[in-house]
Structure formats: structure tokens, C-alpha cells
Design brief:
This protein is mainly α. Helices cover 76% and strands 1% of the residues. It has 25 helices and two strands. It has a two-stranded antiparallel ribbon with strand order 1-2. One of its GO terms (biological process) is Golgi to plasma membrane transport.
């Protein structure tokens, strides 16, 4: 039974498995049915048979279902076939119509197709044309810029051409770089740059050659400007002082100063326009070349080349001509060339940034200065003519002053002038030795006979002779000395004038000039004149009578020496006094310039609480100015005292002028109203002036001497600040009055301006008792001041 159950279970399982396989076959794609069928043979031995039976049963079931379905749909199928046959005829008719329509449509479409193809071709052409225009529009700026570059090169605008090249390379060409012509342009630009460098360097060489040729003219122009300026200042100073220390008349060789000194030969043309270095030389090549090399990134090469060439030119300029010492024109050409060279360098220094530096110009100048001094020292030693030495000195002074105006140190040149001064004095001594010998040879060694008073006055006007007994004698009479004595005395004075000419414009103090004159005059008397006298007495034709007369002559010459000392002192003192007067005038003019900057608000309600800016600047200027007096040379005690006196006088003059100028401000007739706030502000400024005076800006003042310069202002301001009219009116005219320096007319003028302001600013003052009282007081004081002013006018 167990076996039977197991068999039944297996049969059930097998049937279930076959059912699953059949369902899988029905539901699975035909291509994948192989593995399913293979599983039928992998099962039990009789499984295949059972599966076939099961399959047959399934087929029959499906056939019965198909048959049922066909039976159900057969009539509909028959009806459909019948309908389809009916439609067949209509379809054939429709087919014919469609074919005919297609034929006609094809015939009509051929023309449309042809036109469409034409439109497509035109559209393609239009698109190509648009693209071409766009490309050409991109290329046109490049071509125009390249054309502009060519024009700039042809017109020698190289700096602009470099800028155009830079724009081409960085902006324009990269946009259209795929075209062949742009590649050709890009390859050509470096060559153009090199061409520009070569052309600009050629222009620079031409420029260097040009300035070498024009250096003489540039230096001449610069020296002429300085000479005209000095001549103008000299004329102004002489007109202001009414005198000068230079002896009028002839120079050492008898010519007038204008004839003797070629530097003044063109003074009549001083009104003509004076050309500058920029007018004589076109500096554009060096600017252009500098800019070009800067843009090309090769500035250092250009700077080194320029400096190297200028050093070579400097060495050439510093080489003098062999015969330069023979005429003053040789020296002038030498100075003009050197000066022109450094004027150009100074212009290049200030007009360019870094092409030449101050250190480079200083190096060149130091080299040139050493060479100039050596050349002048050598060539001046050949000069035996004092006139030529004097003209050389004048040239050196103007040369040094001109260079100093351009910022070059020239102290060594003025030191050289002291060496040349000794040589000049030696040439003068030699010349005056000949003059003295000629005078002695022409002298008759007998007393001077004077027949009339005119002859007597003529002699004593040339020689300081005073003898009471001889003056009492009647004409004709004889003077004890011979004719050589007044002649010698006149020639000694001429020597002093000649020696003084060399000391002009040496920028030395008058004490030093005084010492120079005394030293040279002493050499003339002790060496030259003494030597001539010794040679004279040894001559065989000099007898006893002549020797006695020579002794008398020397005695009178010795007595006249003190007059020569006074003569030298008067010469230097006159010039010193003129310089001192110029100091006072210049200082007052500077104070006036500061005063013009004053901008008081005379109607301000109250003060700012601090002094005005213009006044503080003025006081700082005065402090720094008076400190300069401490640097005046004080080699000698008397000169130190003189310098201190000049400083004290200048300081007192400045304070008085400042006080007077400040006093005139509130009293100006054009000023109509002044407020109390303005008076307070003005008082703050005056206080600063008093503090300056009390700070002893110049030593040597006793007590409050300097502060007294502002006493008039102080008393006037105190009167208004304190409003102490009762005291002023009560004590007026008394020596002990607190407001002794306040003039009634001054107080009246200021008070009337304040009265007008009080009326204007106090519209409702009539409603306030204090204001009404103040107005009444002002009116009362005004009446009393007017009575005082009227009384003063009647008394005068």
C-alpha cells in the first residue's frame, strides 16, 4: 500500500510538472523553448510518454476552442470578404487618381525644385558674402593701423609708431592671426623696431654733433644774460646810492670800460630778446630717442651710450687752444664752450627723468673744474698785461656766476681768482714801476713854482699839502716839493683804483677788500716806489741839490700816506654803506610782501584765538633772516662790531617798518567799519610782534629797546581793549600819561569806525539800557577827541 501511495504521489508530481512545462511552452518565446523541452527528457523514464499524452490532450483542447471561435466568427469573416471585394473596385479607381495626381504634382514640383535650388545657392552666396564682410571688417583695422604705422615712419614719428606696433601685436593681429598677411606683418614688426632704433640713434648722433657746434653760442648767450643782469643791478644800486666806489674815466690802458671789456659791448642791445638753449638747439631728438629706447626696454643701453659720448665731448671741450692766453677772445671761447656744455647737461637733467643724474653732472663738473683750474693757472701765468688779467678775471667771475646759477659749485674758481689776483698785483707793480721811473726822469727836482691861486689849487687838489706859512705868502711862491710828488701821489691813487677793479664781484666782505687794497698799496710803496728811489739816487747825474730835493719829496710823500689810508677807507666805506642801505630796503620790501597777504575780517564778532598765519610766517622769516647776520665774517674785532651794528639797525628798521605797516591797516581810509572782535584779533598779532622783539632776535639791544618800536600800537590797542577813555582824556598832554603815544586823530579815526559798526550791529540797542549808555559814551568821547584834534590844529 505504501508502494501504491508512493506511485500515486509520483504520478501527481509528474502531472504537475508536465502542466508547468506546458504552461511555460505556451507562454515562452519559441527561441527559448529548447531548455524547457530538455527538462522533459531529464525526468523519470516514462515521463516522455506521459508528457506526449498530456500534450495531445492539450492540443485537442485547443483545437476544440479554435473550432468554437471560428464557428462564432465565420459569418463576420464572410461579410468582411464580401465588403472587401466591393472596396476593390473603388481602390483601383483611387489608385488611378493618386497616380495621376502624383504625376501632375511631380511636373509642378520640378520648377519649384529648380527655384529652391537657386534660392539655396543664393543663400549660400549671401552667407559667404556676410562672412567675408565680417572677416574684412576685422582685417580693415589691422590694415589701417599698419598703413598708419607706415605713415608715422615716413613722417619720423617713431615714438607713435612704436605705440602703434605695440597695439598691433597685442590687440589687432591676434584677432586675425590666421591670415597670411598678418603673419607677414608680425614677422616684419621686429625689423621695423630695429630700423627705428637705428634711425633714432642716428638722430642722437646728429644731436650730439649739433650741441657740440652750438655750445659756444649757448654759453655766450648764458653769460650775456648774467652780464646784463649784473649791469642792470649795478646801475640800479648806483642810482639808489647816488655814488659808487669805481673811479670814472679810463681803464689801465686808457680805454673806456665798454671798449676795454668785451662783455659789455652789447649792452645797448639788452632790450633785444635773448635766446635760450632751447631756442638754439632742438632737444627733440634726445627726447625721442629716450622714449623709443624706454618703450623698447633698452633704456639702460641708451643712457650708457649718451653718458659715454658726453664724457668724450667734455674732454674735447676742456682742451684749450695753444695760444688761448694771447687774447681775451681765446679765453671767452673756451669759457663759452664749457658753459654751453653744462647748460645743455643741466637742461637734460631737468627735462628728462634719469637720462643724466645729479651725481653724473657733479662728476663731470668736478672733472671739468680740476681741468679748468689747471688750464687757467698755466695760461694766466703767461699774461703780463694787467688789462688782459683784469678782463680774464671778469670773464671768470661771470663764468662762475653763470654756473652757480645752474647749481654748480664754483668756490674753487673764486679761490683761483685770489691766485690770479696776486699775479695781477705783480703786473700792476711792474707797470707802475715804469710809470714811476718815467716821472722821476722827467722831474726837474726843484720846488714847484705857483704864479696864481688857480695853479696853487690845482696842485693841492692833486696832493694833500697844507702849510700855514706858505698859504700866507703872496703869489708868486714856491711849494717845497717838486713836480714828481703830486704825480706820484696821483699814480698811487690810480694804482689803488686799478687794484680795486680786480676785487669787484669776488663775493668777499669789504673788510677783506680793504685788507687787499692796503696790502697791495703797501707793496707798491715799500717795494716798487722804494726800489725806484734807490735806483734814482744811484744814478750819476743826480747831484747834491737833487738829493736834497729827493729827501724833501720823500718826507712829503710819507706825510701823505695817512691820506692814502683814509682814501682806501672811504672807498670801501662808501660801498659798504650802499650795501647796508640795500639790506634795509630789501628787508622792508619783503615785509611789505607778507603784509599784502593779510586778510582780516574787520567785521568779525570775535577773534580766532590765535595769531594770523601771515604774521607767523613773517616772524619766522625775520628770525631766519637775522640768523644770517651771525654768519657774517668777524675776523676782526672792529668788523664784528660793525656787523653787529648792521644787524641791530636792520632789526630795528624792520620792526619799525612792521609797526608802521600794521598801524596803517585799521586806519585805511577805504576801511569803513571795525568790530571789537577784529580789534582783539589784531591785538593777538601785535602780541606776537612784541614777543618777537623781546626774544632778542639780534644780540646787543639794551632792555626793551626793540619793543619800543611797537609802543604806539600797544598803547592804542590797550586804550580800546580796556576802554579806558576817562584816563586817556584826563591825562592827555601830561608826560606821565599812560597813553602818551596815542594821537587823538588816530584814536578818533578808529573810534568812528567802531561807532558805525556798533550802530549797524545793534539794531535794537535803543531797547537795552547798557547799549544806549555805550552809544552815549562813544558819542561823548568822539566829541572830546574832535575838540582835542581841533585844538591841536589851531595851535599848530
Amino acid at each position: 500500500m505504501i508502494t501504491t501511495n508512493m506511485a500515486d504521489n509520483e504520478t501527481v508530481e509528474c502531472i504537475t510538472e508536465h502542466e508547468r512545462i506546458l504552461q511555460e511552452i505556451e507562454s515562452t518565446d519559441t527561441a527559448c523553448v529548447g531548455p524547457t523541452l530538455r527538462s522533459v527528457y531529464d525526468d523519470q523514464p516514462n515521463a516522455h510518454k506521459r508528457f506526449m499524452e498530456k500534450l495531445e490532450v492539450r492540443i485537442r483542447n485547443h483545437d476544440r476552442e479554435i473550432e468554437k471561435m471560428c464557428n462564432f466568427h465565420h459569418q463576420g469573416f464572410v461579410d468582411a470578404i464580401t465588403e472587401l471585394l466591393k472596396v476593390r473596385a473603388d481602390a483601383e479607381k483611387l489608385m488611378g487618381q493618386v497616380t495621376d495626381t502624383n504625376r501632375r504634382l511631380q511636373d509642378a514640383g520640378r520648377e519649384v525644385t529648380a527655384q529652391t535650388e537657386e534660392v539655396i545657392r543664393c543663400r549660400i552666396q549671401q552667407r559667404n558674402m556676410t562672412t567675408t564682410v565680417e572677416r574684412i571688417q576685422l582685417c580693415i583695422p589691422v590694415l589701417e593701423m599698419y598703413s598708419k604705422l607706415k605713415e608715422q615712419l615716413e613722417s619720423k614719428r617713431y615714438y607713435a609708431a612704436l605705440k602703434t606696433m605695440e597695439q598691433l601685436e597685442k590687440v589687432s593681429i591676434p584677432r586675425v592671426g590666421r591670415y597670411r598677411f598678418c603673419q607677414i606683418m608680425a614677422e616684419n614688426l621686429p625689423k621695423l623696431r630695429e630700423d627705428i632704433k637705428d634711425i633714432s640713434m642716428s638722430d642722437l648722433k646728429d644731436f650730439l654733433e649739433s650741441i657740440r657746434k652750438h655750445s659756444d653760442r649757448i654759453g655766450e648767450t648764458a653769460m650775456k644774460q648774467v652780464q646784463q643782469h649784473r649791469t642792470f643791478n649795478s646801475v640800479v644800486q648806483k642810482q639808489d646810492s647816488g655814488m659808487g666806489f669805481t673811479k670814472p674815466g679810463s681803464s689801465l690802458n686808457g680805454q673806456t670800460p665798454t671798449q676795454n671789456n668785451g662783455l659789455a659791448a652789447e649792452e645797448d642791445q639788452s632790450e633785444e630778446e635773448v635766446l635760450t638753449a632751447q631756442d638754439l638747439v632742438d632737444f627733440s631728438p634726445v627726447y625721442r630717442c629716450l622714449h623709443i629706447y624706454t618703450v623698447l626696454g633698452d633704456r639702460e643701453t641708451f643712457e650708457n651710450y649718451y653718458r659715454k659720448q658726453r664724457k668724450k665731448q667734455a674732454r674735447l671741450v676742456l682742451q684749450p687752444q695753444a695760444n688761448m692766453h694771447e687774447t681775451v677772445e681765446g679765453y671767452r671761447r673756451y669759457f663759452n664752450q664749457i658753459l654751453g656744455f653744462f647748460v645743455v647737461e643741466d637742461h637734460i637733467l631737468h627735462a628728462t627723468q634719469g637720462l643724466v643724474t645729479r651725481a653724473f653732472t657733479d662728476e663731470l663738473w668736478n672733472m671739468a673744474l680740476s681741468k679748468i683750474i689747471a688750464v687757467l693757472r698755466t695760461h694766466s701765468s703767461y699774461c703780463s698785461d694787467p688789462d688782459l688779467v683784469l678782463e680774464l678775471k671778469n670773464l671768470i667771475v661771470i663764468f662762475a656766476d653763470t654756473l652757480q646759477g645752474y647749481g654748480f659749485p664754483v668756490n674753487r674758481l673764486f679761490d683761483l681768482l685770489f691766485e690770479i689776483r696776486d699775479q695781477y698785483n705783480e703786473t700792476l707793480l711792474k707797470k707802475w714801476a715804469l710809470v714811476f721811473r718815467e716821472i722821476f726822469e722827467l722831474d726837474n727836482y726843484s720846488p714847484i713854482p705857483v704864479e696864481t691861486e688857480e695853479e696853487y689849487k690845482s696842485v693841492i687838489s692833486r696832493f694833500p699839502f697844507h702849510d700855514a706859512e706858505i698859504e700866507k705868502q703872496d703869489f708868486p711862491k714856491k711849494l717845497p716839493m717838486s713836480q714828481s710828488v703830486p704825480q706820484i701821489y696821483v699814480q698811487v691813487k690810480e694804482f689803488i683804483y686799478a687794484s680795486l677793479k680786480f676785487s669787484e664781484s669776488l663775493h668777499r666782505s669789504w673788510t677783506e677788500i680793504d685788507d687787499m687794497l692796503r696790502k697791495s698799496t703797501n707793496l707798491l710803496l715799500t717795494r716798487t716806489l722804494s726800489g725806484c728811489l734807490q735806483n734814482l739816487i744811484k744814478k750819476p747825474h743826480i747831484g747834491l741839490t737833487e738829493l736834497v730835493q729827493i729827501i724833501i719829496n720823500t718826507t712829503h710823500l710819507e706825510q701823505a700816506c695817512k691820506y692814502l689810508e683814509d682814501f682806501i677807507t672811504n672807498i670801501t666805506n662808501d660801498a659798504r654803506h650802499a650795501a647796508e642801505g640795500e639790506i634795509y630796503t630789501k628787508l622792508n620790501q619783503k615785509i611789505d610782501e607778507f603784509i599784502q597777504l593779510a586778510d582780516y575780517d574787520w567785521g568779525m564778532p570775535e577773534s580766532d584765538g590765535q595769531a594770523s598765519g601771515y604774521l607767523m610766517d613773517l616772524i619766522n622769516f625775520l628770525r631766519s633772516t637775522f640768523q644770517v647776520f651771525t654768519h657774517l665774517p668777524n675776523n676782526y674785532n672792529d668788523h664784528a662790531a660793525m656787523s653787529g651794528k648792521v644787524a641791530q639797525t636792520a632789526c630795528m628798521s624792520a620792526c619799525k617798518h612792521l609797526s608802521t605797516s600794521l598801524m596803517q591797516m585799521p586806519l585805511d581810509s577805504e576801511l569803513k567799519q571795525i568790530s571789537m572782535g577784529a580789534i582783539q584779533q589784531f591785538n593777538l598779532d601785535v602780541i606776537q610782534c612784541e614777543l618777537f622783539a623781546s626774544s632778542e632776535p639780534v644780540p646787543g639791544f639794551q632792555g626793551d629797546t626793540l619793543q619800543l618800536a611797537f609802543i604806539d600800537l600797544r598803547q592804542l590797542l590797550d586804550l580800546f581793549m580796556v576802554w579806558d577813555w576817562s584816563t586817556y582824556l584826563a591825562d592827555y598832554g601830561q608826560p606821565t600819561s599812560k597813553y602818551l603815544r596815542v594821537n587823538p586823530s588816530t584814536a578818533l579815526a578808529l573810534l568812528e569806525k567802531m561807532k558805525d559798526t556798533s550802530k549797524k550791529n545793534n539794531i535794537f540797542s535803543q531797547f537795552r539800557k547798557n547799549d544806549r549808555d555805550k552809544q552815549k559814551l562813544i558819542e561823548t568821547v568822539v566829541k572830546q577827541l574832535r575838540s582835542l584834534v581841533n585844538g591841536m590844529s589851531q595851535h599848530s
